[in-house]
Amino acid sequence: MLAGWTAPREPEAAAVQAEEVHGPYLLMMRTLGRRTGELHQAFAKPSGDSAFDPEPIQRRHVRAWGARVRADLLATLKLLRRHRALVLESLHAECESLFEARKRLVDHIATLAGGVPSAVKTRYHGDYHLGQVLLAENDFIIVDFEGEPARPVQERRAKHSPLRDVAGMLRSFDYAAQAVLKRFAADGGEDASLLGRLVEVWERSAKDAFLAGYKAGIEGCPSYPNVPDHARALLDLFTLEKALYELRYELENRPEWIDIPLRGLLRVVREDAREVSKAPEDQ
Which of 230, 53, 59, 240 is nearest to 159 (CA)? Predict the structure, then answer.
């Protein structure tokens, strides 16, 4: 990730130089976003097969998605309390912050699931992340369409908003960024704060490039809500859903990795708090 980079003294200068170094990579992320949009375009084409034909998203669907994420939140908090002994002491304060944010997150989920987007639900990848794409001659091949292995087959075949795939990829960028920092810390690396700033720039830039490519690839597709706020709400809802799943997975399989989804969830809380604080000024 840092090939060709030499550490400048000021973090701001480091951020600028990092963006310059990652230019070719960001072009590839834009391509990946476009290919993802084109994949979802293909899923949205009527085929005459009821198992694959798109269906309009109705209010009951969005309410059910919101109810599921709310149930995931409560189950995740319960699991986190039960496995508290496995959590590193350095993360206890952040765990408490998440417990304290329970009501805020419940309200946030209700807000995100409060609209009815004008869009269709379709089949989708279902387990989409950086490990499911192969780089081939400056382009990408998307693989492994069986969906999330831990979920029942019937659920993996169910139609949903393909923005669930987009949420999975965005969370994958977060994991890639944080894994670098964890490895750097484990190796006893110095200048962790400077590297953290560089990683933050990379993550934000990669996500922006991916989303820009996705918007280009998905343009005109009936599965993409035609109201930007509706698209954003669904994407935020599914990103939260994915982070909750990740936290449960790490608690049960790799407790030393829970910091990544935990901090991702706390970032949602902080961002929601900022939005709430700005709301009166916007009215």
Answer: 53
